[in-house]
Design goal:
Elements (H helix, E strand, L loop, with lengths): L1 H19 L2 E3 L4 E4 L6 E6 L2 H8 L6 E3 L13
Parallel strand pairs: 1-3
Antiparallel strand pairs: 2-3, 2-4
């Protein structure tokens, strides 16, 4: 049980480090990987369908833009 807890912690720590190293360019709602397995994202897609059209022939993944809508302004009044 102790080994399971340690390995879970190590995996979670690694995931946090790799996410911190991720970079994205563009202001679109969806991103595509630059290369398979890369943490660099090209985020100029307004729809998931448009992103997938670009990604599928190259076996890349699409994901929501982590910076979409983060302008620093509050949407609440």
């Amino acid at each position: 049980m102790k080994a399971l807890m340690i390995s879970t912690f190590v995996i979670a720590s690694f995931a946090g480090l790799t996410a911190a190293n991720a970079t994205s360019t563009g202001n679109g709602r969806y991103c595509v990987e630059q290369t398979a397995g890369s943490f660099e994202k090209y985020c100029n897609f307004a729809t998931l369908k448009a992103c997938q059209k670009q990604a599928q022939p190259q076996f890349l993944r699409c994901m929501p833009n982590p910076n979409y809508g983060t302008t620093g302004r509050s949407s609440r009044n």
